Amino acid sequence: MKKGEIVLGAFCVAFFSFMFYEAVKLHGVGRFGEVGSGFWPMLSLGIALLLSLCWLIVTIVTFSRAKGRAVEEPSKETIAAAWSRRKKVALSILSIIIYIVIMPWVGFILSTLLFIPAFALALEERRKMVLIISPFLITAITILVFAKFITIPFPKGAGIFAAFSRLFY
Amino acid sequence: MFEHYWNAFATVLLPQNILAIGLGGLWGLLAGALPGISTSMGVVLLLSFTYTLSPMTAFSMLVAAYCGGITGGSITSILFGIPGEPSSVPTVIEGHALAKQGHAAFALWTFLLCSIFGGIFSVLVMMAATPLIANFALKFGPPEFFALTILGLSVVSGLSGGSLLKGFLSCSFGLFLATIGTDGITGGERFTFDTMILLGGINFVTAMVGLLAVSEILIEAEEPFKEYKGHVGYRGMRAEMPKFSLFRKNWFNLIRSPIIGTIVGALPGAGATIASFLAYGEAARTSKEPEKFGHGAIDGLMASESANNASTGGSMTILLSLGLPGSNTTAMMIAAFMIHGMQPGPLLLSTHPEIVYGIFVAMLLSNLFLLVLTIMGIRLFLELNRLPYSVFSAAIIILCVIGAFGLQNSVDDLFVMFAFGLIGYVMRKFGIPVAPAILALVLGDMAELALRRSLLLSLGDPMILVSRPISVILLAAAVFSIVYPLFKKPKMLQGL
Asked: pTM of the prediction?
């Protein structure tokens, strides 16, 4: 994890430096004698930059100290388990992003009906009954409570999907 | 005064008012528990039903919905880790951690009893000391507000877990996030990069749902497959009922937190969020087991919940006595007063004393009703834990989507929520606490505006911040709150 921490620390330093540069550009925006738009962002980003630099330095120092010590090679099972974990997270993230992206096009109902089994499969759910029944049940309850009762105007989709959504809300 | 209270009790106990309290409380509980509807939205939706009701019945219903909304938000916070309001963040941290350990019913019992205690405490304070609190609240100008927000931010040390460095890094990231969007004073754009999506700033509810709930689901996705949630074998409500000794042990925390809640709730614009975080931070600072904070500390849950609900009384005090809204929900209440031909403020007590005292009594009864209603409702919510784990997680994501979408009915918010879900996931993976970022996002804007307004008042002289007694006391408390943990636990600085 230390390598990852160094990468994240370096990213934070670069990100906050860039934003600090942007904040400097804001300095002076405002009426004469006022604290300008850039003051507070410069203050918060200055602190963030300083803290991320501290974090990066301490992590590098710790990492270089630990480098000399002999480290046990992870077993094949450990590596395989780590890959399986990453795959599950990646698939979960992918199903969420697809759900959000397609929702305005196919509407809330259809995207939710597709999302539930996709997300459950990403979490290694294999029970057929769960995969078949739960999407319909959860979507029906959601539409009933949030679209019918509370009247949240969920996306209806475009074209034929909009016509389908209008059948329900 | 006693005559007024006697009359108010007699009026509120009429069957139609009792029914209004029951229905309003039930609606408030649902609105608070369901993502996508905030407490203020719950009150607004109810407003149209009260047009034809008598003023006392209408206000009985509205205050019950207000108290119910604040209470209901914590149910989903504990069971699903989805905070309905920013003030529920400490509840998510501690309550959801307890639920994950299999003590959902225990966490729910404790939250409920502390919430109701906090609510009743603040109503009793409100009944006795409305003019006193109102006078105190009037002393708060921009410098005092700035000092208060800094005091609110100082609880970061209590939210940082093992590493103060990471806690403060998270906090400064949140402060930066709060500056994105349109500048509240000059109207200029900041960090929007010419995009419409960032023009209105980052909504803290969207960010909060992403940072806490979505990231939690992604973290849990790493675990090996399980048929049901790990804590499906929870013990029943009766078996998990907290013992009296727990409350006796935490008596000081239980007195201090509602006092913080009532006072801070009475400050216009401050509301439940600062109250809940301040009480939580105090509990973390004075706890005998500070290492438990973040991992299911019951004293943290007790503090935040009692302060959270106590803020309702404070908000109503300032509304009734000065006509100032202490929170979004009480701002909606002003509309209710106007609909019924009244103007909240100093004259209300002399022109409509029956309404003012009636509201006090209705709030008291609402809290008692909520105790019964929530116990019945909790059983139903606990049954949701019996859902298959994969479906449960999918349902949580859908609730998060509804919560984020329902704010402005915009798909853009879903992308913001998702982005914060990823940021929260990375932060958690590297041991960076997310709570300080949320706290700073909520308070950052308030702190900046208060500071700039103070400097405008003083023509740029920063000494205004330390020239008033209240702000000096609050700033000193903030410095103490930040410095104290460094001396008490210097290892926290090294805790990388």
From this structure: 0.83
